[in-house]
Fold:
Amino acid sequence: EKAGYKHFMAKEIAEQPVVLGDALRHYLTLDGVNLPPELDFSSIERLTLVACGTAFYACSVAKYWFETLAGIPCEIDVASEFRYREPPMPIQSYALFVSQSGETADTLAALRYCAGKVAKTVAVVNVPSSSIAREADLALPILAGVEVGVASTKAFTCQLLALAVMALKAGRDRGHLTKVQFDGHLDTLRAMPGLMNAALTTADDIAKLAEQLAEAQDILFLGRGPMYPLALEGALKLKEISYIHAEGYASGELKHGPIALIDRTVPVIVMAPHDKLFDKTVSNMQEVMARHGKVLLVTDGKGVASAAEGTWAHLRMPEVAEPFAPLLYALPAQLLAYYTAIAKGTDVDQPRNLAKSVTVE
Ligand code: M6R
Structure:
């Protein structure tokens, strides 16, 4: 079943262009999106997105999209905090619950808390027969196919896609996006499988870098804007399977503490497409380099041309229009974790202490 791959995780990383293509065919029509008409965002005052782990980071990326593409106030929380906070829920709001398995106990409890308090509860799940899908008012499939590896990979990018499509619909429902802008964003999403194939060709380079990363005690990931949650996701993936201590930070937070950690032994992985925040991130990166931190810059051709000099290494991604770079940059983040774990000889598909589905609190 591993289709010639050494691990399910490797297979699931590699099949992302294909499964994302399938999901795109489901969610995009010739001139719009295929979402249930009752998912109407026009008079919604707030969105709340709740999840755990990697699914929470998908929500964290989506918050940027719902705010910038649709102008909807959007709250996010991890389910284990949300459910005990007794948060007030405006009736004119939707609550979204994102879960690969659809069985995560805290996420299910958060959904039950919201039932009846909001206009609609919406499940974004990979397993359509799951408890979360059944109990929500509306369930949207992410169409990633069965995910076996404990480290979530293709489910993450498919969660991002479903959320991106929703944010675009919300943008149209609310008149926040013109038709031309909306069409442009759809084209960006349609191009994603091809871009992902190109990103996967960096695997051999990543495998070489990983041999050195595997020596590190601590690794930092930095990102800004929608790349900040991706930094968190990169760090989670790495610690889950390689057992190396890793932290993700918003680039701008570096000087508020974590820069004290930097020396020659600390690799700092900077996820920075050449977008409108690029220069800000580069100045944070230079602060790291001035303290002899070992920078791995993950960027595109323009980013390489303007900022790769003096870094320890760089990875070149294809160019991708804003704000959907997280869908693409997830792949090098996953590959970095995968090859670092391989270099350390850990059990990639069955990391210690972790379960695929967390059905206990
Ligand atoms: O099945 P779910 O999406 O609800 O699972 C949530 C988390 O347990 C899950 O994403 C976990 O963080 C993964 N092991 C991350 O790779």
In short: The longest strand covers residues 93-99. Residues 52-55, 99-101, 104, 107, 150-152, 240, 354, 357-358 surround 5-amino-5-deoxy-1-O-phosphono-D-mannitol (CB under 6 Å).
